[in-house]
Amino acid sequence: MPLFETINVDETTCLYVWKVTESLDFLEQEVSLEGVHQVKYDAIKTESDKKNFLATRCILKSLGYAGKDLFYDEKGKPFLKDGKHISISHSFNMVVVVVSEKPVGVDIEKKRKKIVDVAEKFTQWDYRDTSFSARNVLQKLTMIWSAKEAGFKAHGDPNITVSQVLVKDFFPNDTQTKIKIGETFYNVSFMNLDDFVLAYCQAS
Length: 204
Known about the structure:
Mean pLDDT: 94
Strand order of the largest sheet: 7-11-10-9-8
Number of strands: 11
Order of helices and strands: EEHHHEEEEEHHEEEE
Helix content: 25-40%
Low-confidence stretches: none
Distance between the termini: 34 Å
Shape: globular
Number of helices: 5
């Protein structure tokens, strides 16, 4: 599996990005599933989602984790049995895993026009009242969505809504911003990887 990027965020946090090009048969040979993980895998309908599921386990295997070392709490939030925090995201054939000793969230999104069509559902920023080019509008909206998704994962409360994740305004070429969920502030960092936006966040 070709490594796309490895980022040492800080002394206790590392981010792994993989571009999945292997066949499903190859990935199935690389990972041994059992228990709840096999049940989850069997329930996945599309081949691309199956490949991303297995790719995530391949990343963890390369880091020395067995399948049973990954578990989910009652809210569906993933954890590692050694006590470290983990967040997982995938979009098309890109898979991202971040492992940290503190709560963390990650999201990766492909830049697609459909996000412009639904912008009013997740942000109060009015892209029509701006001098930004269409390209920069798409960039910023994708960044806003990814920041909210990463924050949602870091916060770990499935009851919060997208409108409760408040994003500090930024420019499309910025690499950082802040978000607020309830009384908690998070630092968000952005990366551009080909046609994708990646956002990861940690509590301030």
